[in-house]
Design brief:
Keywords: Centromere, Chromatin regulator, Chromosome, Cytoplasm, Cytoskeleton, DNA replication, Kinetochore, Leucine-rich repeat, Nucleus, Repeat, Telomere, WD repeat. Its main location: nucleus. It is found in: Chromosome, Centromere, Kinetochore; Chromosome, Telomere; Cytoplasm, Cytoskeleton, Microtubule organizing center, Centrosome; Nucleus. It is built from nine helices and 42 strands. By secondary structure, the protein is an alpha+beta fold. It folds into two domains: 195 residues, Ribonuclease Inhibitor (Leucine-rich repeat, LRR (right-handed beta-alpha superhelix), Alpha-Beta Horseshoe); 374 residues, 7 Propeller (Methylamine Dehydrogenase, Chain H), CATH 2.130.10. The chain has a six-stranded mixed sheet with strand order 1-2-3-4-5-6, with no helix packed on it. About 9% of the residues have low confidence.
Length: 671
C-alpha cells in the first residue's frame, strides 16, 4: 500500500488544506518515499501545486506522468536519483535542487538545463547564462556536426527507392557512427554530448526520411572527506595543476651524474647513437604538475609511478560500446591519485591521502545492485602504495567506499582479473602476492572482502601479468630476483602456494641466469611476453607456450625462456623504468633515464613468432621511434635529469601518458 494518501497530502500542505486542488506548497520530505509511492492518479489532482519538497527520501527516479502543470520549485536533495530526464514533464520549473544524489553528475546538470527551458536556479546557483549556451550555442554546433556527418558519409548510401529494411539498417549505422565520431566539449561531458547527438540525429532522420524520432534519453550517474582522505572537484583540482611551459626545441644532452631517486640507485648512463624514425607521428599535448605535495608548485621531486586508462562501461544503462576508447586516465604518485582527460589536460578528479605514497592503480567494472533489485555497471578504481592498504573508489559517485588492509608492507602493484570482476591481485614488499575477492558493494556501500590465495615469492614482486590464454590458471611475476610463474587455479585446496617455475635468461657472459631483477613485464599478445632488466640495454621478447609446458606437473622447476627477439634500449642499469604494451597495435613502450620514450612497432614480427618453428631474430630490433623529452621550463629554470618511470597508451594508441621522476605527467597524441 502506498505511503501517500489524500489525508497525508492535505496534512503536509503548507498551510494545511482541505482540498488537493488548492494546495500550492507541499512538503513530503523525510518520509522514506520510494518511486512507487508517487501515485500519478493522486498527484494529477494537485493542479495548482507550485512548490514541492521531496528531499531526504529514497527516490531513484520520477514516474513519467505525475502531471503537475504549474510546478515551479522542486527539491530532491538526498535521494538516490539515477536519471533526470523525466523532469521534462515539468516545463515551468524555475528552481531545482538535487544535491547529494550520488549517481547524478555534471552530465545530468546539462541535461536538465537543456530540457527545462525556464530553469533559472540549479542547486542554488544561477545558471541562466550557461543554460542559454547549452540550449543555443551547444545545440547549434552539434546540429551542424551531425548534419555534416550525415551528408558526408550516409546520405548517398540510401537508394532513391528504398525498403524499410534498408532504412532501418542505415539508421542503425548512422546512429552508431555519429555518436562515435561527433565530439564536442570536455570529456567530462561526453555522456551529455552523446545523448544530445543521438537526439539530434534522430530528429534529422525523422525530417529527412520520415522516421519516428525517439528522443527519450538514457540515465547516467561525488568523494567524501574522512580524517586523512580528501577529494577535490574538477575546478579545485584544476587550480592545483601547474601547466609547465614547453619550449619547442630538443632536450640538451646532460652528461652529469644523476642524483639518487626514491626507489632506485643510479649509475652514469652511457651515450649511444639513437635512431628517431618519423619524429612527427606523436605530438606533445600537455605537461601537467598535478601530484604536488601540499599542492606546491615548487615540487619537482614527487615520483609518479602508475597510470591506467579507464575501461569502457559495456553493460547496463551506461552501455558505451559505440565509443572506441576511453580518454580518461588514472595516475598516481606521492599522496594523490588523479583522473585526467587526455584530450583537454583537465584534472577531472583528485583523491588524496596525506600519509600515503601511492605506487599503483587498477580499474575494474562492477555490476552493482542499485535499488529495487535493478543492476547498473560502475567503474571502480583501486589504489595502493606504501601503507599496504588498498583504497576502493567509486569514481562516478566521488566516493572512497572502503579499504582492504592487504599487507603489512608496501604494495608494489595491483592487477584485476580480466575474467572475474571482483578478483584483485596485490603484490607486496613482504614477498607475497595475494588474491582478493573485493566483493560487490550494496546500495549503502557495505561490502565484504576475502583473501582467496597467497603466492609465496623468493623476492619482492614488482610487476605481475596473467597469461591471456588462461588468466584463471597462471600468473607471471617479475621480481627483484627473477621471473616466476604460479598456478592460481582456485579448484586446488592449497591456499598458500610456492612458485611453479622460475625462468632462465641469457646473461652478459654468454651463459644463462635466473637471478636478475625483472622490473618490466607485459604480454604483447596471447603468447609473446616482454620483459626487461635481465641485463642493461636489453628488452627480451619470449614465448610463454614454448617456454612453459602447462601439462608438466611439479613445483619450483627452472625453465629456459625461449627468446624470440631482443629490443635495443638504453644501456642504463637504472631500475624501475618499466615497460608497457599496446596489443591491438603490436607496440612496446619503455622510457629511459634521459626523459625519452622508446617505441617499437612489432607488427612485422608477430606473424613469424606465432609459428611453431619461428626462429629468434638474429639482430636486436631497433626502436621505431624515440620521443625526445622537450625543453621544459618553470620559473625560467630548465628541468633536467628526467627519468621516465612509466609509459602507457590507451587501447587504440591514440594517447600516450608518460610518468616521470620530476612530478610531471606528459601526454602525447598520435598524429
Amino acid at each position: 500500500m502506498s505511503k501517500i494518501t489524500t489525508e497525508l497530502l492535505l496534512e503536509r500542505a503548507v498551510p494545511r488544506s482541505t482540498r488537493l486542488r488548492k494546495i500550492e506548497t507541499l512538503n513530503l520530505s523525510k518520509l522514506q518515499l520510494k518511486t512507487g509511492d508517487l501515485d500519478p492518479r493522486l498527484f494529477s489532482r494537485l493542479r495548482h501545486l507550485q512548490k514541492l519538497d521531496l528531499s531526504d527520501n529514497l527516490l531513484d527516479k520520477f514516474p513519467n506522468s505525475l502531471t503537475l502543470p504549474d510546478l515551479r520549485v522542486l527539491n530532491c536533495n538526498n535521494n538516490k536519483l539515477e536519471d533526470v530526464t523525466a523532469l521534462k514533464q515539468f516545463p515551468l520549473l524555475e528552481e531545482l535542487t538535487y544535491e547529494n544524489n550520488v549517481y547524478l553528475t555534471r552530465n545530468d546538470d546539462y541535461k536538465v538545463m537543456f530540457l527545462l527551458q525556464n530553469l533559472r536556479l540549479l542547486n542554488g546557483k544561477d545558471i541562466t547564462k550557461l543554460a542559454n549556451h547549452v540550449r543555443r550555442v551547444n545545440s547549434r554546433k552539434l546540429t551542424s556536426k551531425v548534419t555534416a556527418h550525415w551528408e558526408k558519409f550516409f546520405r548517398d548510401q540510401l537508394p532513391e527507392k528504398h525498403t524499410a529494411e534498408q532504412v532501418k539498417s542505415i539508421k542503425k549505422k548512422f546512429l552508431k557512427s555519429v555518436q562515435t565520431n561527433v565530439v564536442y566539449g570536455p570529456s567530462s561531458l561526453s555522456e551529455f554530448t552523446r545523448w544530445r547527438v543521438k537526439m539530434i540525429a534522430e530528429e534529422l532522420l525523422a525530417c529527412s526520411l520520415g522516421l519516428d524520432s525517439n528522443t527519450d534519453p538514457e540515465p547516467e550517474e561525488k568523494i567524501d572527506d574522512s580524517e586523512e582522505e580528501s577529494t577535490e572537484s574538477p575546478r579545485e583540482a584544476a587550480e592545483d595543476v601547474d601547466q609547465v611551459t614547453v619550449t619547442p626545441s630538443k632536450r640538451k644532452r646532460n652528461n652529469s651524474k644523476s642524483g639518487s631517486g626514491n626507489k632506485r640507485s643510479k649509475t652514469q648512463a652511457n651515450s649511444q647513437e639513437e635512431a628517431v624514425v618519423n619524429p612527427r607521428s606523436a605530438e606533445p599535448l600537455h605537461f601537467l604538475q598535478c601530484h604536488s605535495k601540499g599542492n606546491s608548485r615548487e615540487d619537482f621531486k614527487t615520483q609518479l609511478w602508475s597510470c591506467v586508462f579507464e575501461p569502457l562501461l559495456d553493460c547496463g544503462a551506461r552501455k558505451d560500446a559505440i565509443v572506441s576508447s576511453s580518454r580518461t586516465v588514472a595516475t598516481c604518485g606521492g599522496e594523490s591519485v588523479c583522473l585526467i582527460d587526455c584530450e583537454t589536460g583537465t584534472v577531472l578528479k583528485k583523491y588524496k591521502v596525506a600519509t600515503e605514497e601511492f605506487f599503483s592503480v587498477a580499474w575494474t567494472t562492477l555490476t552493482m545492485v542499485i535499488s529495487d533489485s535493478r543492476k547498473k555497471s560502475h567503474n571502480i578504481l583501486a589504489a595502493a602504495g606504501r601503507r599496504g592498504i588498498v583504497k576502493l573508489i567509486h569514481v562516478a559517485a566521488d566516493f572512497c567506499y572502503g579499504e582492504i588492509k592487504a599487507h603489512k608492507k608496501p604494495i608494489a602493484t595491483l592487477f584485476f582479473s580480466p575474467t572475474r570482476e571482483t578478483h584483485l591481485f596485490t603484490a607486496s614488499y613482504d614477498k607475497r602476492i595475494a588474491l582478493w575477492d573485493i566483493g560487490i558493494p550494496d546500495c549503502d556501500y557495505n561490502f565484504k572482502a576475502s583473501q582467496l590465495l597467497t603466492l609465496e615469492a623468493l623476492a619482492i614482486p614488482l610487476r605481475i601479468a596473467l597469461v591471456p590464454t588462461c588468466p584463471d590458471h597462471y600468473l607471471l611475476a617479475g621480481c627483484e630476483d627473477g621471473c616466476f610463474a604460479w598456478n592460481i587455479k582456485l579448484d586446488k585446496e592449497q591456499k598458500s602456494r610456492p612458485f611453479e617455475a622460475i625462468f632462465q635468461f641469457p646473461d652478459e657472459d654468454g651463459g644463462v641466469t635466473s637471478s636478475h631483477r625483472v622490473d618490466g613485464l607485459a604480454f604483447l599478445n596471447d603468447d609473446v611476453v616482454v620483459s626487461k632488466s635481465s641485463k642493461p640495454g636489453c628488452i627480451y621478447l619470449w614465448s610463454w607456450s614454448r617456454s612453459f609446458d602447462t601439462n608438466r606437473r611439479g613445483c619450483q622447476r627452472t625453465v629456459s625462456a625461449v627468446i624470440l627477439a631482443e629490443l635495443e634500449w638504453s644501456p642504463t642499469d637504472l631500475s624501475y623504468l618499466t615497460l608497457s604494451t599496446c596489443p591491438a597495435k603490436d607496440y612496446v613502450f619503455c622510457g629511459d633515464e634521459k626523459g625519452s620514450v622508446w617505441m617499437y612497432n612489432l607488427s612485422n614480427y608477430t606473424t613469424a613468432w606465432s609459428s611453431a618453428k619461428g626462429k629468434r631474430s638474429d639482430r636486436r630490433v631497433p626502436p621505431t621511434q624515440i620521443l625526445k623529452w622537450p625543453e621544459l621550463r618553470e620559473n625560467r629554470e630548465q628541468l633536467s635529469e628526467v627519468l621516465i618511470n612509466n609509459v602507457v597508451s590507451d587501447p587504440t594508441f591514440t594517447y600516450l601518458v608518460v610518468l616521470t621522476s620530476v612530478n610531471i605527467t606528459a601526454i602525447w597524441k598520435k598524429s
